[in-house]
TrEMBL record:
GO terms for cellular component: cytoplasm. GO terms for biological process: porphyrin-containing compound biosynthetic process. It holds the Pfam family Radical_SAM. Keywords: Oxidoreductase. It comes from bioreactor metagenome. GO terms for molecular function: 4 iron, 4 sulfur cluster binding; oxidoreductase activity. Its EC number is 1.3.99.-. Residues 1-202 form the Radical SAM core domain. This is Oxygen-independent coproporphyrinogen-III oxidase-like protein YqeR.
């Protein structure tokens, strides 16, 4: 515990200084997202200091903080009462103890019940928006179990946003071992598709709009911060494992923070951020990958203005290879239907193969 306190204090000091230097030009950030890992591992006082620094030139329109159920408590409520945070995203994942154990989660069903109820209390007191993350298509999980999770969460909290993620079995984990030994069965693509269609249909009946492959909301309560990712708008990421997407005179580029928590805590300011410059073709690929995930899809005029690609001229032959039930095509946008969402990887690959290379104009600002 003492070692973690030492690291967290050093981590907070460096992050605070980097935030201060980045906000020194009277910049007001539209959105802020405190997440990745478990921000609840920091104290409310540390988080408040970081958020005040990030908003010292003006309040951000949306400030989201991620919380894990096992570390969330009422001691974090001052973040909401002081207006530093107006949206919370909680990683529930499952309401089943056995599934939580298989996922290697630290939280139990009882932790989830307590945290969801407490989150709803914060919503009632301070008017914050709530999102809950749930995992689906898990080994041993039925469609009805997944639907029951959604209903139970929504019976405890008035959430306007739900994020659903399918399981990715990572090498070297206990879950990967169990799957490899055939102790657990993972759904095949057809099985996943059937479960997802059932879950998506249930969310629609509950009044949720499917606005991105993994995200659903009521009353257009989109996650504005994530919209910046999907729209390929510039964003700045600070801290261990953070990522940024920025634009300069030569085009788009990424920064990735490669240091782990201990390295970040003990290293010089702005060290460990590695830059990757994107070619115009890479920028187009990234835009297509993100845009096709959303219900708005590809904005044809943006594609031409930003990347010099006329959609109808470039992709007209491709559309002839797609089933008409997979997409919607208008003069302004090309987007995927829910059937298309299920085939996203295949459709994206076809689009990428159609990009002319090299493109003959620089990446415009």
């Amino acid at each position: 515990m003492q070692a973690w306190k030492t690291y967290s204090n050093a981590y907070g000091r460096r992050l605070m200084e980097e935030i201060s230097q980045c906000t020194g030009s009277e910049r007001v950030y539209d959105t802020i997202f405190v997440g990745g890992g478990n921000p609840g591992s920091l104290t409310p006082e540390q988080l408040a200091s970081l958020l005040r620094s990030a908003q010292k030139h003006g309040k951000s329109r949306e400030v989201t903080i991620e919380m894990n159920p096992e570390t969330f408590g009422e001691h974090f409520f001052p973040l909401f009462s002081d207006g530093l945070v107006n949206r919370m995203s909680m990683g529930i994942q499952s309401m089943d103890d056995q599934l939580l154990k298989r996922l290697g989660r630290n939280a139990s069903r009882s932790d989830n019940l307590r945290a969801i109820t407490l989150a709803n209390s914060a919503r009632k007191r301070y008017g914050i928006e709530l999102n809950f993350d749930l995992m689906v298509c898990l080994p041993g999980q039925t469609l009805q179990m997944a639907i029951n999770d959604i209903h139970e969460v929504l019976s405890l909290a008035d959430a306007h946003h739900i994020s659903l993620y399918c399981l990715t079995v990572e090498e070297g984990t206990e879950l990967a071992r169990a799957v490899g030994m055939q102790e657990l069965a993972v759904l095949d693509e057809d099985g996943q598709a059937e479960m997802l269609k059932g879950i998506w249909g249930e969310l629609s009946l509950l009044g949720f709009s499917h606005y991105e492959v993994s995200n659903f909301c009521k009353h257009e309560k989109f996650c504005e911060h994530n919209l910046r990712y999907w729209n390929i708008s510039p964003f700045l990421g600070l801290g261990s494992s953070a990522a940024s997407t920025l634009i300069g005179k030569e085009g788009w580029y990424h920064y990735t923070q490669t240091q782990d928590l201990r390295q970040f805590s003990s290293s010089a300011l702005f060290s460990g951020y590695e830059r990757e410059d994107l070619s115009l073709v890479q920028s187009v690929e990234e835009y297509l990958m993100m845009a096709l995930r959303t219900k708005w899809g590809i904005e044809k005029q943006l594609l031409e203005n930003r990347y010099g690609l006329a959609f109808d001229k470039t992709f007209s032959s491709l559309l002839g290879t797609l089933d008409s039930s997979w997409y919607f095509d208008t003069a302004q946008n090309f987007s995927l239907s829910e059937i298309g969402f299920l085939l996203l990887d295949e459709i994206l690959l076809r689009f990428v193969m159609q990009i002319p290379e090299p493109l003959d104009r620089p990446n415009p600002l």
